Amino acid sequence: MTILGRDGNVSFIRLGTLAAIIGVLIILGGLALFFVDRANHQRPFDIEPPAGSALWFSADKGGNARQVVYRVQGANADDIAAYYQRKLLEFGGNNGDKCVRFPSIGNYTEYDGGNREIPPFRWSCMFDNSGFQISQSTRVNIEPGTEANDSVGMVVIENEQYWQR
Predict the structure, then answer these.
(1) Tens digit of pLDDT for each residue in 19-45?
(2) I need a labelling partner for 7 at 20 to 30 A (CA). Which of 22, 143, 145, 161 fits?
(3) pTM of the model as a whole
(4) CB 145, CB 58: distance < 8 Å
């Protein structure tokens, strides 16, 4: 199909028809991409755990949330947090979020006071993969194991996953 008319000049009807066809294709392509993106965000956002991690348990927390917990034998919580910090940098670049330690220095006062039922500290890393008007995220919590959960000498990695249906 040529956009020139019988007289050799540009045919505005043919040009308008071509522009309409291109416009419809762009709109259909945009809708297809929107629905593909939406479908990709309607499931848990999995973050690969570090090598040596063993799945401890997984629990659904409703139709759009779940908890997945791993344990790592003989690891250091700070090293595991550094692993997830590298994952955050890969995910979000240098503008990505940072893993945060609670408390920022030392241990929880309750732990230092003798309560060994709680971990001494916790790292928390937020992976937010939300899209256009749809949310999908995983918060990774990292803490040294305790006697209360039979994980002394291990690091416990809890993934709190949320997504939108």
Answers:
(1) 899 999 999 998 888 777 777 778 899
(2) 22
(3) 0.78
(4) no
